[in-house]
Amino acid sequence: MLRIFLYSFVMIWSVHIWATPSVDSLKNEFKNAIIKDDQKQQEKIANQLYSKYSPQHLFYYQTLLKDLNGNSILVTNGYEDTYPTILLQLVKEINPKVDIISLSLLKNEKYKKRVIKSQKINLSSPDKFVAELMNIQGKTVYFSSTIPLSKLSQQTQRLTLIGLAFEKDAPEQLNKLNAFWQYFKLKYNDKVALTQYEQKLYRNFLPPLLTLIKLNASLNIDNTELKKLTLNFSKKIKKEKEVKEILTQYNQ
């Protein structure tokens, strides 16, 4: 009798594991739902996939999203730049009115055609997609700072770093970087260990922090607390040497 019970238990457990979608499977389903613009399917998958990301990973994209205007466009880089952002919109309702455009998903013809139509882009050449986005009127356009600047080609002179994103023709950079820094100081948990992937991702926090230090110095604003936090943070992500060298240059 005991053998039958144990066998039944193992069989039930095995079936349960077999029936649980893998992370890759969920991501693939989510990707297809985004391409098809199937909102119901995205919502169906969202909670399951959301639980697969660490709080540290999600904090990064929460910080990215919170700095954006409601009626805007955020251009993301790879899939792992896109999924957490959309998941936070669906599950936590953080800035749900921001339109997310993924450069990686643009390789899919169906997705690209839908984006071109929805954003009313007059695309004469695939190489001019970023330039056309810059010309969209009535919406603020942001580019995730995870996008290599080489992909933004000739548009970098119109982009301003305001946190974890570049904003097109952004006014009031100092105020926006201050808001970013205050949120980071309040919400960042330096007691939690980061994976190697998270350390690499979190290195994108450094450019806005260092830019704010430089701007404050030019205006004779006290940087003591900001410098201390930035140095401590740089140790966490194994970039202390580089940050010290940059701060030394600022002081010269």
Structure overview:
By secondary structure, the chain is an alpha/beta fold. The chain folds into two domains: 150 residues, no CATH class; 81 residues. Helix content is 57%, strand content 8%. The protein has twelve helices and five strands. The chain has a five-stranded mixed β-sheet with strand order 2-1-3-5-4. A hairpin with a 3-residue loop joins strand 4 and strand 5. Helix 2 runs antiparallel to helix 3 and helix 4 packs across helix 5. The longest helix has 18 residues. It is globular, with a radius of gyration of 21 Å. The termini are far apart.
Write the layout of secondary structure elements.
Blueprint lengths: L1 H18 L3 H13 L3 H12 L4 H12 L5 E5 L2 H13 L7 E4 L6 H10 L10 H6 L5 E5 L14 E3 L3 E4 L4 H15 L8 H7 L3 H13 L5 H13 L3 H12 L1
Parallel strand pairs: 1-2, 1-3
Antiparallel strand pairs: 3-5, 4-5
Helix pairs in contact: 2-3, 3-5, 4-5, 8-10, 10-11, 10-12, 11-12
Rg over alpha carbons = 21 Å
Task: Estimate percent helicity.
Answer: 55-70%
State which percent range the strand residues make up.
Answer: 5-15%
Element pattern in H and E: HHHHEHEHHEEEHHHHH
The average pLDDT value, as a whole number, equals 88
The oligomeric status of these chains comes to single chain
**Strand segment count:** 5
Note the main attributes of this structure.
disordered N terminus; 252 residues; single chain; 5-stranded mixed beta sheet; alpha/beta
